[in-house]
Specification:
Helix content: 10-25%
Number of helices: 2
CATH class of the largest domain: Mainly Beta
Distance between the termini: 46 Å
Number of domains: 2
Largest sheet: 4 strands, antiparallel
Structural class: mainly beta
CATH superfamily of the largest domain: YVTN repeat-like/Quinoprotein amine dehydrogenase
Strand order of the largest sheet: 4-5-6-7
Number of strands: 16
Order of helices and strands: EEEEEEEEEEEEEEHEEH
Strand content: 25-35%
Radius of gyration: 20 Å
Amino acid sequence: MLTWGDDRTARLWDAASGREVIPALTHKETVWAAGFNQDESRILTSTGPSLRIWNALTGEPLTSALKSGGQGKLTPDNARILALGFRAAELRDGRTGQLILPTLRLRWPNDDPYKESGNQTASEDGSRIVDWNFAGRVRIWNLWTNYDWPRDQLRLRLEVLTGTRLNSLDEIEVLPRKEWDEIRMRYLNLLPEVR
């Protein structure tokens, strides 16, 4: 049995004997959530500002505390961590904790919380997020990524494939034809390196 709380620990217990199985997983803040991966070999803990992966057999940390703005869960294949909070979502590598995609801004820090009241949820496999507000906005975020593509060029790839980009307010805008042609040429020049 896995427990956590405001004593800043997560603990794994033997349900039959009531004894701790591994040393307490100690944090600097209150632990808001904890859970196992699919084969129960890892534990992912979430505090307000951080996530951490632990070895479920020994209690040893597998990552440092990863700065995050939401509660996390490991995908069933352990390949990714999805951290989902009210204002942002992050997709991280399940082994190293490194960001795979830039942080998705679900809401702005100065948004009126009454107008932006809503929620968000993730698909079971961590590949999609749906977020909505009570003003009627619904967005679906597809987090599937091609790991063979250079991560620093993901924005370029998205702009070429969709003909759009996110402006500084995270609004979708259509690229002018001339600009799209220039971006497309940069994209085509990268293709031999990817293959």
